[in-house]
Amino acid sequence: MWSSLPSFVAVYPETLLVVVASVMALVDRWITRKAVFTWATIVTALLALALVFLTQGTTFGHAYAADQYGVFFKTIFLLVLFLVALLAPGYNQLLGINFGEFYALLMYAVTGMMLMASTRDLILLYLGLELMSLSVYVLVGLLYAELRSLEGAMKYFLLGSFASAFLLLAMAFLYGLTGTTNIEAIAKALLAANLSANKALFLSAALFVVAFAFKVALVPFHMWSPDAYEGAPTSVTAFMSVGPKAAGFAAMGRVFLIALAAAKTEWTQLLVPLAVLTMFTGAVLAVVQTNIKRLLAYSSITHAGYAVLGIIAGTKEGMAATMLYLFLYAFMNIGAFSVIVLMRRRNFLGENIFDYQGLSKTHPTVALLLLIFLFSLTGIPPTAGFIGKFFVFRAAFEAGHTALVILAVLASAIAAYPYLRIVMLMYMKPPEKEVEISLNPYIFAGLMFAVTGVLLFGVYPGPVIDFARACCTGFLP
Amino acid sequence: MEVALRTAEFPLLSAIIWLPVIGAIILLLLPRRDRLIRWFSLVVALADFALTLPLFSWFDKDFAGMQFVEKHAWIKAWHISYFLGVDGISVLFVLLSALVTVLCILISWEAVTEKVKEFHIALLLTSAAMMGVFCSLDLFLFYLFWEAMLIPMYLIIGIWGGPNRLYATIKFFLYTLVGSVLMLVGIIFLYLKAGTFNILEIMQLGLPYQFQFWLFWAFFAAFAVKVPMWPVHTWLPDAHTEAPTAGSVILAGILIKMGAYGFLRFSLSFFPVAAKAMMVPMLLLSVIAIIYGGIICLAQTDLKRLIAYSSVSHMGFVTLGIFSLEGNAVEGAILQMINHGIVTGALFMCVGVVYERTHTRAIKDYGGLATVMPIYAAFFMVFTLASIGLPGTNGFIGEFLILLGTFASKRWAAVLGALGVIIGATYMLRLYQQVFYQEVNPKVAGLPDVKMREVLALVPMLILVLLIGCYPTPFLGFMHASVRALLEHVHQAAGTTLPISEILKEGLHVVLPS
Amino acid sequence: MIPVSWYLVLTLFLFAIGAFGFIARRNVIIMLMCIEIMLNAVNVTLVALGRGLAHTTAHVLVFFIIAVAAAEAAIGLALVVLLFKKTREIHMDEFRTLKG
Amino acid sequence: MKYVVWIPLLPLIAATITLLFGRWYIRRQAHWLPCIAVFTSFLISLKALFDVIGGARANFDLYSWVIADTFKVGVGFQVDPLSVMMLAMVTCLSFLIHVYSIGYMEDDPGYYRFFAYISLFTFSMLMLVSANNFLQLFFGWEAVGLCSYLLIGFWYQKKSAADAAKKAFIVNRFGDFGFALGVFLVFVTFGTIYYEPVFARVHEIAHATVNLFGHDILLPTLIAVLLFCGAMGKSAQFPLHVWLPDAMEGPTPVSALIHAATMVTAGVFMVSRCHEIFELSNVAMAVVAAAGTFTCFMAATIAPTQFDIKRVIAYSTLSQLGYMFMACGVGAFAAGMFHLFTHAYFKALLFLGAGSVMHAMHHAPDPTDMRYMGGLKKYMPITFITFFIASLSISGVPGLAGFFSKDEILWSAFASAYPWGKIVWLVGTLVAGLTAFYSFRVVFMTFYGEFRGREVLHGHEPHESPKVMTIPLMILAVGAVVTGWIGIPHVLGGENHFAKFMEPVLGHPHFHLPHGWEEKEALLELLLMAVSTAMGLLGIYVAYLVYIKRPELQRLVPERWPTLYRYLYRKWYWDEIYHALIVRPTFFTARAIVQGVLDSIFIEGVVNGVPDMIRRGGETLRRVQNGVVHTYALIMATGAAVILLLIYLF
Amino acid sequence: MEGLLPKIVFIYLAVVLVVTSLLVVTNRNAVHAVLWMLVMFLHQAVLFITLDAEFLAAVQIIVYAGAVLVLFLFVVYMINLRTELKIHNFTVFWPAALFVSVALVILAAQALKDFRAPQPVGDMTPEAIARVGHAKLLGKALFTEHILSFETVGVLLLVAVLGAVVLTRRIRMIRGEGL
To answer: Do residues D322 and D240 both lie within one domain?
Structure first.
């Protein structure tokens, strides 16, 4: 029993975000210069990042620890926030999305994710997840003038709540078995009570698998994601294709690798078929898409399939691989979405892949950037995508999942086709219609930042690999 | 096999690899003035070629190990280093790559008129990646270059290619990607076993046979597609047919050599026991490629397609030589790779010359060209003869050594392989007759003969054809020490081979979750 | 004392009924209510477990679940109203513009 | 004796210069350089010949050609009686034909090309005969094949010429296939392919066997038969003889030089060169004898039915080559070489004579058709006389070159220790008669009787050829008479210098006379000589009877035995048989099976089928994503249920 | 006898909960469904009381019955679809849904046979509740151990408010949106 309040140092970054978000939401009506919000978000993201590193190692009671594991994920989230803040202004301006609310909701969502990444308590994990989810539901529906935005939000909301119920059930059973919601304590209790062969524990693990599989969009719990991605404003799609997914993986790492370490064989066996299904379904479905947002949605499903390989490996290397994968994925995926954002005009969606036909002729720079992002998504060296894939495959292989890796590489070959198709349209077909693109400095900076990341980490990933591994060292034995 | 190293004082190989990349970056910044761009890339390519010349003269032919070695730590976390070096097996390919790049720029001078800047950037990047493949002594670095080359090549075929290029590029890309990713699995496995990507260290690993067996096939997937071996050859005719001339020349000249080079550098030295055990299937596939590729040539009606299928047949000779595991044959195979690069590259250049004038590749649209374009016909004749393997041309030396060596190791393979020589003469002469002899086809009447620029690109090839044909000793001289060391390594490798059924059972055991 | 398993079975039944309703009912408001049923099912278990363990955490969680459920209901109903205003339709299976 | 290097080198230089600059700079003067080069080569060859007669020998490498792992071979020269004889003969004939061509090719647009090619050919042939290893032999072997290809297809605008060139090359490739394998086997057996060490150690493998398809085969047999495959191709022996008649599409000097005098005899030369290997194997010798005998007979039956003057001579060449192989097949290699030597002159003469006739007839649509000739002797006396001499020589009329060489072959065959000697003799004697018959058939149809070609010549009169053509004819005519005199057998009081000269290289045949005749060897030889001479004279008489005296007899065979006649006229249907058995099936396989089924349906089916499957799978899965949120929920719940089920499965 | 009464009470409550929830799920009329749900919540509150969780029972009634259900009712009335009564209110694949739900129950129940609760770990014994009071115990836990979660819930509710405001605020619809 505590006699005094714990130190709040550990949650300074989150506090900062919440405060700035709330202020933004409040003053939205009175500030007409929208750039202020963008700048505020960028500065906040950078400040929060600095705080994340400064508060590293601090704890907040038993519930929360700003450990290295969390630091890495928070870096990803803030990176995502930074990139999305850069890509959003033009698009939001064009479609009349309120900057203040938009950025506020983004920051709330990021707060939720950060809580998920650093939590040591299932309750806080649930609340962080809900905070993130609720913010994202609203973000998806922000473009309520468009039916598809609302429809996407509604579907995402319904299915998300449905999945939350499974998560709660899983947590309830786990709590019932161990008498605690603290993640480390659960692990200890499971070992102490020798529950590693208990069917009820497996049930709980299975329900966790269902819930997290929904969050990171593993097949067959992925079905919300193409619809939500397509319906959402593209700036939000960019955000939710990386952020919540990474948060889901962060939570997965905490729950599966720490809390449920005793049932590792079981949840591994549950995740393996999901991973295989995910990689192939995502790849196969991406092949037949003509809407680029939807295509990237399926692509992100496939990528989740790869990322989960690191969790399946269940080792320090595996977790580091997943983390690195997500980090690199942020650069390339948001980069790709930035280009899609550029295509949008008031009366022109610019989402059909045929809209990209001949882009290399009309806008060579943009086409080249998209080319690089797409090849990175394909996993062709010397781009970051290859490094990520390599690390993940390596970790899974090391953990003995040979067949899984072979299937993964085959899936990656199938998955290459949709990206190639877009490149093909951009570079090998003549332009059919005039496509107008107005680069604003923000998005240009974002694109440059992303492409630099993709290429730099493609040829010199050493430091970031070391970082990811170091972040896992304290996390896993 | 302990591989000796000889470190370079000057980072020559790095300079060779990165000069085109720097050139490409500068090109990116240059204004879109076609003449400027062409001249600039030509200068870069020539400079790069000039840089490779010291390799030729400074190379110590008696030294079996790696020379011009550079090694720097790169990704420490995975023990990856930036590790370059060449030996007698790879040095000639670096030279050839540089030469081919120069020639490709020359032959594209007028053929490529759209997106000139992009074209030359892609060309230079391809060239850099190819040379990187041949110089890498780190498996990761190797794979990086190996895959990186796909992107510019994909663009070269897809943007500047023929009418059906989209299908061809996708096929090319996916085919090679499927092969490569399987190799990636193998590479990861090797890394986990060896704890390093250092090729020279992995060579000494001495894995048990069941591992070697599986890894052999994983690497085989990548190399066989690249070579291409039967039955994974069908991307090649499509890619060749649709590629612009420069693309075809690079494909034929260098790209498909990378597969055979991979067999030599990796399959043989990493998995010697498996290579020995898989010798017969490999020889069989090679023989099938030779004969199948030859026979199918007889049915072709498209100039480029015919030459492409002939590549399948010729590369069958190369793999035949490699997997005969006999010194003469392996040297012959390496020489034959160079030869095929020169000859088939030159043939594609020649086809490009008329294609630029007529925009048709159908054989029936030609006829009597010897009357119309006699100089061109003479060039084509020499390359045809080299392709047939007439003594005095380079093709003969390679094929002869391959068949001779193969005969010493597996007679039936040499006998069947030699049948390919007959078929080769049949389809090439048939082609030559239909295109150059007989009455002048009105469609080609009055075509201008080759221009100076085209002659300039073809003459080096012609000289090489005759030089290697009449005096191959300096070229073969590069290889003796390295090939001998390699084959000693292969033949000394110990390991009990298991029956396939046993291997499969064990493999399933490993792969399936318990 | 009533065994914990009784509560667990009750929970399962309620949860399954909620899940069935969620999948089977077309009316989006009913679907939302079904989610509430599912959450309440979990609450039953948690309270029972909390009593068995004599532990406050379970009760805290239940308290939070109720709060979150309220927040979810607010967002969900807001979306329902918006959708209805736009389309005069509350049957979720009629919304099929996003598919494939 | 390093100077022999210049013998092949000079023609090569001439050829290269002519080829490079002929088109623009040399043009009509293209003949000078090759002629001078070949003539100089001829002089050097003569010097070499006299040096060798004086006892000099040489065997040296010019430079290392190929050095691979264990395989080392150079470009080298072996100067011994055999090669020096060939050098002298080739340069001599080549020079004469060069000169002849100045006239014959006068107005051809490809003038420079022609001289470059035959010069190149001369180089190749000289490399072939002077080689000191198998690889260089093979180089020459293929190079002459190339020149033959280029020259047969010299008038490439004509489809028939292009076809014939291609056919020659490809048929030869079949032979080379065997030859190359033979060389491989030599290398694998001996570890080297230089003649000297190979032939020195050849007796070590006399009894070695090699297992082939479950049968033990004598190693020398295998080597010899494989090498002989090459000879069959190059020397147009059955079954690879089909290319030679078609090769007549080339200019006539080419036929004379390549397809009569030199290149086609390379097979005989090679067999003689390797006689150490052949002699170790009775089977191989039998194969050689059988191929020679059969070809000899077959060609002799076809020749009388043909009307194309060049074709008749081509078949005659086939037949004479058969004689040479008959000699080799009974171990009389020197006799074979002797016939090769004499044949070169009279056959070249026959061709050049025919060329001269064609030159006269060149306004006719088909200047080779004998049915439009006749009575030409009064228009072109020199041609007539030289042609007549050559025909006498080939018919074996005593005193002329052909008589001596042919009789030596027949005698060697009859006296041979090999059991098939008698059959060879019998066929040889029979064919001697046929040879005389068809040779004089040509003479009578061409030069005697009335001129039948006025309507096709459209008023042009046939005329004698210019001096530049007739002088070579006259020189060759001398050769057709006197070359035999260097090999006059002992029974006729000669010394047989030729055989003696060759003996160090070729040895001498083993005789095994019939029982009871051992003492009366000379008598027997004379008797046989008489028989063959009688056959020859009989042939001439029959020809005279049929083509001068009683022309109606010409229709006898076609009307009495039309099937037989057609069979012979269509050259035993070999072309048709090959077409049906090899060419058509190959192309059918290529188009229909390999291209049509295997590649496009089978392999491409898989290649395109997998992506199609993926696409179709995608389209199907796509329908599951139907936009209805309940479906999604149901699938989620089902997934959850399946996952719960998995708990029990594991 | 002492053990029997709570069991009877539990069985009653359980039956009512299941029946009312089934009625919610199956009822054609949304208003009726909401009302049945109210009944269900009330019974659940009673269940909470039997489990010594008085404060939660109060929250259940105040928040759920009092606020959330009213909100639902409000929306139902606002929408007020008459046609609702005439058309299908189940999706076509409801049998599949039923099957899956039953399967879930069976499978989970099988697994839960293994369920073993640990020994009591906390201090929230019935005696403590009786002595200190449920609300106070809960409050103490909330404001000490779970303070961060509590704060998070606060933010979450803020987001909910903000979200609801953002979504329902009427702003100019963009013209020409046929998209």
So the answer is: no
